[in-house]
């Protein structure tokens, strides 16, 4: 797709539903007894993979755009799937579903696309095996395809070496089906959508700053879920509004869960003109409106506890940093290497092609700003939605048009991304 510079970005958009919350709404609805309704569900390819997997286990799910109804019959009603559970490109689907399958007394086989085949699974399969599940796969259960024979689990106290909501959620979902109590402790707190939503489905959990515990045998009760807009998707337009001159963008109903708002902290630290207007709701997931205007930006140092709160936003933060005065350092983010692509390598290679001054480091990157981006090159998402969207925003600024390859990858989390960008753009 050929994209060219814009003069400004102005207007209001409704960011599609949060991907992490959408996945969980379908999974937990499938485990609950009764009718769960979901509003503002994200109809992106990743969440549709989750729906397809649970349908294969006998769950009746109606999906009409962003409205979803799940007719749950309880966790014991899930049936043995008669063919492969295909997770497509979705790490969240496979890792959380493994936690559910670990406790089911049947056999299942799970796999996804080429990117999923490269992503590490032992981080989840190891603790699940410790609990009693029988799981195998390539390289001793590290890579797909995986086979699972679940059941007869015991609770564990698991200390995770990385802050990961997918590990935490998988172990807690197995813990719900285990004898006794299961506790997961992390080095820093990761996103807590699982804890919040399990609570909304009637499950009791106990939490400390960096751990969550659940006792097995609790039943989930159907719930009505509203999914706020995805702050990870909003991050692309927050950055665009901050770096494209003469811009003002209003983003409605964006999720403001504090375990996800690292991007807001970074924008404020860099001097962005950002207004946050929280909505007064009593809902499990806080949300509100965001207004961003273009302004002068300064570099920042980003590392430590904030990393899990903005891990998926690092590709777009790298672009933001190219337009800030000084050198931005991103560290403690080695997890980027095991996402849909190695996001340290793909961010550095693609931004360099369009004129950014950026270096990879062992656990992050250094970006030297402020640089005019020349463009005039062909770049690629490498099949990674977040790299594709970052390049889409970069094209608004480049001196010469750029050709972005593999833009279809964006459909996993934001199918209407270019529609929204075109709606806001004023061209020469
Ligand atoms: O689902 P997937 O492919 O893992 O998606 C990503 C993304 O960029 O959309 C990561 F590549 O988000 C993860 C996120 O990085 C979604 C997620 C969740 O919903 O629990 C948690 C994070 O991953 P992790 O490995 O830190 O638990």
Which helices and strands, and how do they pair?
Elements: E1 2-3, E2 8-14, H1 19-31, E3 33-39, H2 45-56, E4 60-64, E5 67-73, E6 85-86, H3 91-101, E7 107-111, H4 122-131, E8 134-137, H5 138-141, E9 143-149, E10 153-154, E11 157-159, H6 165-175, E12 178-179, E13 181-185, H7 193-200, E14 205-207, E15 211-215, E16 224-226, H8 231-243, E17 248-255, H9 262-269, E18 273-278, E19 287-293, E20 301-302, H10 307-310, H11 314-322, E21 326-330, H12 343-353, E22 357-361, E23 364-369, E24 378-380, H13 385-394, E25 402-405, H14 417-424, E26 425-426
Parallel strand pairs: 2-17, 3-16, 6-7, 10-12, 11-13, 20-21, 24-25
Antiparallel strand pairs: 1-25, 2-26, 3-5, 4-5, 7-9, 8-9, 13-15, 14-15, 17-19, 18-19, 21-23, 22-23
Bound molecules: ligand SPQ.
Written overview of the protein:
There is one protein chain. The chain has 428 residues and is an alpha/beta fold. The protein is built from 14 helices and 26 strands. It has helices spanning 19-31, 45-56, 91-101, 122-131, 138-141, 165-175, 193-200, 231-243, 262-269, 307-310, 314-322, 343-353, 385-394, 417-424, and strands at 2-3, 8-14, 33-39, 60-64, 67-73, 85-86, 107-111, 134-137, 143-149, 153-154, 157-159, 178-179, 181-185, 205-207, 211-215, 224-226, 248-255, 273-278, 287-293, 301-302, 326-330, 357-361, 364-369, 378-380, 402-405, 425-426. The strands form seven sheets. Strands 18-19-17-2-26 form a five-stranded mixed sheet. A hairpin with a 2-residue loop joins β4 (60-64) and β5 (67-73). The longest helix has 13 residues, at 19-31. The mean pLDDT is 97. The structure holds ligand SPQ. Residues 19-20, 90-92, 164-166, 169, 190-191, 311-312, 335, 339-340, 386, 413 line the site of ligand SPQ.
